[in-house]
Specification:
The structure holds two protein chains of two kinds. By secondary structure, chain A is of the alpha/beta class. Helix content of chain A is about 35%, strand content about 20%. Chain A contains eleven helices and ten strands. In chain A, strand 1 and strand 2 (about 45-55) form a beta hairpin. Chain A starts with about 30 loop residues before the first strand and ends in a 12-residue tail after the last helix. In chain B, strands 1-2 form a two-stranded antiparallel sheet. Chain B has 13 helices and two strands. Classes of the chains: A alpha/beta, B mainly alpha. At the A-B interface, helix 2, helix 3, helix 4, helix 5 and helix 6 of A face helix 7, helix 8, helix 9 and helix 10 of B.
Chain lengths: ~300, ~350
């Protein structure tokens, strides 16, 4: 995973859908199905998804303009928010009325757009917290060291392995509060992987991460797929979406407006109109025809 | 001015049952606030339930003292459940509001004359420790806490800890409860369970997203801290009579001062914090009147004794501003500064 590795062209999963491509198209092997999910905040309908299916063992990108309801949709799917109506299921099990922590235990793990690193815990403790089914987390068992000692050593090894992969191993004894914004993103993702999830939902994993780190994050996400996990992520970086996503779902004003493989979707006029803009591949300076030099230093 | 007398009386407070009661309740607050991030502003209520549960268990239900102690502890568990079920789902600040109100409800409930037969109203309850103590009452008769004292009559120790067998028995019982309690809490917070509640203190949404039942953990922390509060009340009840005038809101804030002095997110902090708090409190409480008597302060001696409460308030403010981690706290692990 070092930077000297030439980024290999990821193997894209194809043939994920059944029938003609349209918003809400059926998938061959869906892991997550949402049906008629609607969430209103007062008069505002934040999410109104008629039907959507997330393909298993593929990387699906959820894109859309700001305020399209992507994060709200994430919250609804993971039990952090409750929709006004609708049904949604994970692996065929309905998730309606299931509290967030139980959703997580079923193997559906999410990260947050605003990173939630637990600042006053060490990086290692953050990681260990991710591990599931720890005897030592039960109140009475926790008092007896010998009951959970072995498991704790086990998960420490597992955590160290993950931290090494995310290049955070040197930081393991530091408080998470001392990490930079990008490192917190990495930590949050690594912590989510400690739960050994089936479906990982990443909310803007690349926001605020430098280009070199982005490359290694991309590799991590591609690896997740290799290991048999399903990934659903929200992202605004279209290069990244094109690079790693097998499937793209476009949301606008709470609705799914388009679906398809990344290259096709980005040619869709509705998507260009609602989200990408017509100058997505043109340098900004050329777009405005004005910016020739950054005006740093002149302000103030 | 009797300097030696002041110092001697002050030193005796290190091993005073009151100090131990504060340490126990402070330990409970450390579990609540320091580790789980629960803002409990009603610790006095938990202490009152421990003390009154014990006293009422003996006087009204005629239980042996050790069973009555469990009545006090049980009452605090029920109290924690009643408080926690509606409020732990809400944001932390609401718990603070609810606990401070609930503790007042408990106190006024104990004060009202409607239940005078059980609670003793404004007079409080006494005599439940059986004969031989500072309070005697024929109702309890033999078999009270005082009668369980195996130490033969007499004076033991050396000044300033030269005391009778009852005082030493109290110190030993308190010391044992404290030692077991400190070990228990130390084990708890250094276990995976402790990791989860510290995680909840930082960000409960994140912990929830990792599949932990945040509500259950917060409830467990609230109950454990509450039980330590009840043990503190119990300790007070072992040493003297119970009166609702003791379990006032300012008691809660004294506890907070002691806790923050030692360090909120520490196990030994509450112990040392309450020892320092009481020693200082006793010292100033004796020093100021003595100074006033000597004509060095422009107050009469009764007023002069009240100056210490002003100083406690100032100390609490300075502490929170300049050393929020307390004496023992890890500087990096501040619970106020994010």
């Amino acid at each position: 995973m070092s930077s000297s590795d030439k980024p290999t062209t990821p193997v894209k999963s194809t043939g994920l859908h059944v029938g003609e491509i349209k918003p809400g198209v059926a998938k061959k092997d869906p892991i997550l199905i949402a049906d008629g999910v609607r969430r209103q905040f007062g008069g505002l309908t934040a999410v109104d998804v008629a039907h959507v299916e997330i393909p298993r063992n593929a990387i699906t990108a959820l894109i859309g303009p700001n305020g399209a309801g992507k994060t709200t949709f994430f919250n609804l799917l993971t039990g952090f928010d409750i929709p006004n109506e609708g049904t949604w299921s994970f692996n065929g099990k309905s998730l309606a009325g299931v509290p967030a922590f139980k959703v997580a235990r079923m193997g559906l793990i999410r990260t947050f757009q605003l990173t939630k690193a637990l600042g006053l815990l060490t990086v290692m403790d953050n990681m260990k917290l991710g591990s599931t089914q720890q005897t030592g987390e039960k109140l009475w068992a926790s008092v007896f060291h010998f009951l959970w000692k072995k498991k704790d050593v086990e998960i420490e090894t597992q955590a160290l392995d993950l931290l090494t992969r995310f290049k955070l191993d040197a930081k393991k004894d530091d408080y998470a509060a001392s990490l930079s914004g990008g490192q917190r993103k990495l930590l949050e993702m690594a912590r989510a992987l400690m739960t050994k999830p089936e479906l990982v939902m990443l909310d803007e994993p690349m926001a605020g991460v430098n280009p070199a780190l982005t490359q290694s994050l991309l590799d991590h996400i591609l690896n997740l797929k290799k290991e048999g996990m399903t990934v659903l992520f929200v992202e605004h970086d279209m290069h990244m979406v094109r690079h790693i996503a097998d499937w793209v779902i476009v949301m606008a004003e709470g609705k799914v407006v388009a679906e398809g493989d990344p290259y096709e979707v980005m040619k869709n006029p509705a998507v260009i109109d609602a989200y990408l803009g017509s100058h997505q591949d043109v340098d900004l300076g050329t777009v405005t025809g004005r910016i020739t030099l950054p005006k740093q230093g002149k302000e103030k | 001015m009797d300097v030696l007398g002041i110092l001697s009386s002050t030193a005796s407070f290190i091993l005073d049952p009151t100090t131990m009661a504060y340490a126990l309740a402070g330990l409970g607050l450390a579990v609540h606030f320091g580790f789980a991030g629960l803002l409990n502003m009603g610790m006095a209520g938990f202490m009152a339930l421990g003390a009154y549960g014990y006293a009422i268990g003996i006087l009204t239900f005629g239980l042996p003292w050790y069973l009555a102690a469990f009545v006090g502890i049980g009452a605090s568990i029920v109290f924690a459940l009643i408080l926690g079920i509606p409020t732990l789902r809400l944001r932390g600040d609401y718990l603070a509001i609810v606990t401070i109100a609930a503790a007042e409800i408990i106190r006024l409930f104990l004060l009202t004359s409607a239940f005078v037969d059980v609670t003793g109203s404004a007079d409080g309850l006494s005599g439940f420790n059986g004969p031989g103590g500072t309070v005697t009452n024929p109702i309890a008769g033999a078999g009270g806490f005082n009668d369980s004292n195996p130490i033969p009559d007499g004076e033991y120790g050396f000044p300033p800890f030269l005391d009778d067998e009852r005082t030493w028995y109290l110190r030993i019982v308190g010391g044992i409860i404290l030692a077991v309690g400190v070990y228990f809490v130390w084990r708890l917070v250094n276990s995976p369970w402790g990791r989860v509640i510290k995680g909840i203190r930082e960000d409960e949404e994140a912990v929830r997203s990792l599949g932990k039942n945040v509500f259950a953990y917060k409830m467990q922390a609230l109950i454990i801290g509450g039980v330590f509060g009840a043990l503190g009340g119990l300790m007070l009840a072992f040493s003297t009579n119970v009166n609702s005038g003791v379990y006032v809101t300012s008691l809660t804030f004294f506890l907070w001062t002691a806790l923050l002095l030692g360090g909120a997110a520490t196990v030994f902090g509450p112990l040392v914090g309450s020892a320092i708090f009481w020693v200082l409190q006793a010292f100033l409480g004796l020093l100021f009147p003595a100074l006033a008597k000597a004509g060095l302060l422009p107050f009469d001696s009764i007023q002069a004794a009240q100056i210490r409460f002003i100083l406690i308030g100032v100390a609490l403010v300075l502490l929170v501003v300049f050393r929020p981690q307390g004496i023992f706290g890890n500087k990096k692990e501040l619970t106020f500064v994010k």
